[in-house]
Specification:
The protein is of the alpha/beta class and 474 residues long. Helix content is 50%, strand content 11%. The strands form 2 sheets. A 7-stranded parallel sheet has the order 3-4-2-5-10-1-11, with helices on both faces. Strands 6-9-8-7 form a 4-stranded antiparallel sheet. The chain is globular.
Length: 474
């Protein structure tokens, strides 16, 4: 099928979409991507808002007949593609195709951990108990296990930790519920689909896992399309580095306590060291102070209270690791906890002692937690190796990829050389149809006073525009 005909005023898309109007930029972008995929070349496509870039890359990918991965910057766009855009194209395409939505493991219900949570002797608050009851009821009827389906339990609710798994606490094929595992089923569908929709986090997780020898999550494909590509360098750098949070340490301590009560009550030191680790995490967060911010590691080195609390965390983590090693022979779950503790201990040691200039160390403070990070100064060589693993046509697209009409900055971040690109401006007449308003004197978005202050500016704008306003907070 000819690309121009598909997007014409009397083409297939026009007949399927009410009010559809052809856009020259969309046709040109789709044609360029179609050529790149068919010739197995890489391509950079910058398209302003309103160009219609989603169909401009989906249509060529589907017409090529090759397996394709589409990676988005956010789960929201991922869901929009799978639940809105792809079903529409499925209706108009003459040749049928299969599509699969694949998210990270934390987005899927874990039947074993839910079962353990429902039978544990640990007490839950009233709200947590009610949320777990809703999850348990939903678990009996869901077909996908995607936690975004359930109403009444927000995806960011901490209770989900009790009903989802992590790489560290998953039992894999040794799990009694492996045959019913929603994550396994989702991966199997992805392996068999013509079009797989993922997000950058999952794409980079595949990269990291393969690098550690654990196997490939995503299938070999003919085209890899990176939407919102401007977000990829930062996401990739984080996955190549080490990111430890206070939550990870607390989760290890809590899981260790659960396993202590189930299988290791004859080792009282295990309970004591797990509880001590929780106290050490709390003390480190208090030592950081109340300001919410990101900072360079050298700031911490100069802060004796923080460094003392950090060393205490290391000591308590090591003591828990030693007790888990003793208890690890009692059950598979205790052995998993031991391996998690060992890995966290090694990673924390690597962050604290790192001196190589190839790495950047930094920290970030949240209201009730913190993250300690070590990220690479550059990811160019590693990303090039990753692209070679997927011997496909790579398409990078976003509304913001160029600087001063050049893709050099974006390309240099990923080590992309001699890759052609093109840019299409937005068809919207921003100069005459919109206003840009930037209020001055506001604090950082993490400041506790930010929300009430920004509302003083937002409400009048909403009233004046009758709701036709877009707000961006960064």
């Amino acid at each position: 099928m000819d690309i121009s005909a598909f997007f014409s005023s009397n083409g297939i898309l026009a007949k399927a979409v009410k009010g559809y109007q052809p856009r020259q930029a969309q046709v040109e972008m789709a044609t360029a991507i179609d050529t790149a995929i068919r010739e197995n070349r890489h391509f950079i496509a910058e398209a302003g808002t309103g160009t219609g870039k989603t169909f401009a890359y989906l249509v060529p990918a589907l017409l090529s007949g090759k397996k394709a991965i589409v990676s988005t910057g956010t789960k929201n766009l991922q869901d929009q593609l799978f639940n809105k855009d792809i079903p529409l194209l499925r209706k108009v395409f003459k040749t049928p195709f299969t599509a699969a939505l694949l998210k990270g493991r934390s987005n899927y219900l874990c039947l074993l951990r839910l079962k353990n949570a429902m039978t544990t002797t640990f007490g839950f608050s009233k709200d947590d108990a009610m949320a777990l009851a809703k999850i348990n009821t939903w678990a009996s009827r869901t077909q996908t296990g995607d936690i975004s389906e359930i109403a009444g339990v927000e995806e960011n609710n901490p209770i989900w930790y009790q009903a989802t798994s992590t790489v560290g606490n998953c039992l894999g094929q040794e799990c009694a519920d492996y045959a019913q595992c929603f994550l396994v089923k989702a991966r199997k569908k992805a392996q068999e689909a013509d079009l797989i929709v993922v997000n950058h986090h999952l794409l980079c997780a595949d990269w990291a896992i393969r690098d550690n020898g654990f196997g490939e999550l995503l299938p070999s494909v003919g085209a890899v399309i990176i939407d919102e590509a401007h977000q990829l360098p930062e996401t990739a750098a984080n996955f190549l580095g080490i990111n430890l949070s206070g939550r990870q340490f607390n989760e290890l301590a809590q899981d260790s306590l659960v396993e202590f009560y189930q299988d290791a009550t004859d080792i009282p030191e295990l309970r004591a060291t797990a509880e001590n680790l929780e106290h050490a995490v709390r003390n480190l967060r208090l030592a950081f102070g109340i300001e919410l911010k990101r900072g360079d590691w050298q700031e911490l080195v100069k802060n004796k209270a923080v460094m003392d609390a950090l060393h205490s965390l290391q000591t308590n983590l090591q003591q828990l690791t030693e007790q888990l090693k003793i208890a690890s022979v009692k059950s598979k779950n205790l052995d998993v906890c031991f391996k998690r503790a060992e890995e966290l201990s090694e990673q924390l040691q690597a962050i604290v002692t790192e001196q190589d200039s190839k790495w950047i160390r930094w920290y970030e403070l949240h209201r009730q937690s913190f993250t300690l990070n070590r990220t690479p100064l550059t990811i160019t060589n590693e990303f090039q190796q990753f692209m070679l693993l997927h011997k496909a046509s790579w398409i990078f697209t976003s509304a913001t990829l160029s600087v001063a009409n050049s893709f050099e900055h974006f390309s240099s971040q990923l080590g992309l050389t001699d890759i052609p690109g093109a840019s299409w401006s937005s068809p919207f007449d921003y100069a005459n149809q919109s206003l840009f308003y930037h209020p001055k004197g506001l604090p950082h978005p993490n400041d506790p006073h930010f929300i009430p202050l920004i509302l003083e500016f937002v409400v009048p704008v909403l009233e004046a525009s009758q709701g036709r306003a877009f707000f961006f907070i960064h």
